[in-house]
Amino acid sequence: MSNLTKFFTEGLKNTILLRNNSGFSHKGSWIQANPNTVLDRWYLGDFCSAEYTISSEYDSRNRELVKCLITAGIDNADLQVFSRSATKQDLIGIEAIVNNSFVEVYVFPKKDILKDTKVIFTAQYFESQNPLVS
Predict the structure, then answer these.
(1) Is residue 12, in this structure, part of any structural domain at all?
(2) Which of 27, 35, 46, 108 is deepest in the core (most CB within 10 A)?
(3) In 3D, which of 109, 111, 112, 122 has the Cα closest to residue 30?
């Protein structure tokens, strides 16, 4: 196993510092973005918001990266796409739906022809500070 201290050390303000200008890379397991595909699901008692980076590929010429924020309460969820970069066209749409307990994040193809677009994501979750009250 690799010695992780080669890559990480303690940073300022209780952060983790990546040594030697290193970073993270991400690869699969991917899911296919078909209509009503659940990308992620989280319990409102655990988290109140999340930041997503979503990478999608239809083929080697059609690729896209989307960054979005989701904030949720018991009654509703707000999703804001704040950055999008695509090689040819937008590939996916994103939606957040809340029921009294969970947030579900859905991805879907922007066009029927783009069904089966491959999608991976990373998320940064922010824990709820208050208990759930209906």
Answers:
(1) no
(2) 108
(3) 122
Number of domains in the chain: 1
Give me the amino acid identity at 120.
Answer: I
What pTM value is reported for the model? Answer: 0.91
What is the per-residue pLDDT for 93? 97
- The answer to the question of residue 20 being in a domain is no
Q: List the CATH number of the domain containing 89.
A: 2.60.40.1680
Task: Pull the structure tokens for residue 113.
Answer: 């022809």
Vertex 84: Cα angle to 80 and 92 (nearest 5): 80
Give the model's pLDDT for residue 24. Answer: 87
> Whose CA is closest to 56, among 123, 114, 125, 128?
114
Residues of the chain with pLDDT under 70: 1, 134
- DSSP three-state, residue 115: coil
For residue 95, the enclosing domain spans 27-127
What pLDDT, on the 0 to 100 scale, is given for residue 1? 56
